[in-house]
Amino acid sequence: MIEAVGLTKRYGDRTAVDDLTFTVRPGAVTGFLGPNGSGKSTTMRMILGLDNPTAGTVTIGGLPYRKLPNPARQVGALLDARAVHGGRTARDHLLSLAQLSGIPARRVDEVLDVVGLRDVAGRRTKGFSLGMGQRLGIAAALLGDPQVLLFDEPVNGLDPEGIYWVRNLMKELAAEGRTVFVSSHLMSEMAQTADHLIVIGRGRLLADMSVRDFIAANSAGFARVRTPGSEPEQRERLTTVLTEAGGQVLPEPDGALRVTGLPLPRISDLAHDAGVRLWELSPHQASLEEAYIRLTQHAVDHRSTADPKAGLTEPLPPGAEPPLPVPGQGQPGWFVPPPPQDPATAAGAVPGPQDGTAPSPAPTTSEDPR
């Protein structure tokens, strides 16, 4: 179990983590969420004793990390998959970690099998892809068979199969009674992996609750209702009936209605009494991503804006006409046409449809925009 009490970290006049108090319990996957710069990595570094708190405490099983006996046997962590000597092979990297912690050498091959790197165990890690590096980092975290595991962006660089594997691995580790603490920016993965969420923004705690409670607290469900498209009068009648009953009705672009303020059985009864046929009546709940964005929208430091393209173009000279639009530009499948050929080399042009012959592939050059 990980316990943080009043955890604070300041760098000069900047506060990276501000009075954080939370508990990460065993037997569940706890997601650690927050915008860039919110203090997630700093918090994880303090948990692992890599940074000293300015104030407050954080313990693992009741002790600070530095006071744990043989901590590699009790805590496994992946903070940076690139923290590997590129000249070592995957097996040698893990073997050196095992020897430092008194872990039997046979465990190296076991974790290589777990993460699927047995076939490349003899390759130097400098040639590893980002996904392979992530797998090696996970292997290092599992090396001591620890009861507490911390992962910072563990699916970064993995293909769909690898993401699916990591998701199931986290669940299996938690099901064994281990404490699993996972930081990620992929809300879709957290929705499928995490049981509990700790959300921070600008170093402060924003939420500490189950995934289901988090979505319910930071979003509003609605009912999606659809009437026969060929009978618009039924849609209008239903809108009037639902509004009079206290519901809020918003039209959607595809012709359906979004209804809030009324439960589904009540909507069904009102439609039946009004003689309106329903083609769809379904409940909808916001996604974890939508709930997360709603909660953290005021804690984001870097916001993008619309690109004002007009401000990037130079004004036309006096009397100049704007260029004519290119037919088809912006449509799917459109590409920039090749530059006109020099008349001196036109004799070697590839024949095209204009002379009745089938075009043959032209040699590709660095000037070919395709």
UniProtKB/TrEMBL annotation:
Region (Disordered): 300-370
Biased composition (Pro residues): 315-326
Protein's UniProt keywords contain Transport: yes
TM segment ranges: none
Domain ABC transporter: start-end pairs: 2-227
GO molecular function, one term: ATP binding
Transit peptide in keyword set: no
UniProt keyword annotations, A-Z: ATP-binding, Nucleotide-binding, Transport
Family that this chain belongs to: Belongs to the ABC transporter superfamily.
Record protein name field: ATP-binding cassette domain-containing protein
Naturally occurring in which organism (per UniProt): Streptomyces thermoviolaceus subsp. thermoviolaceus
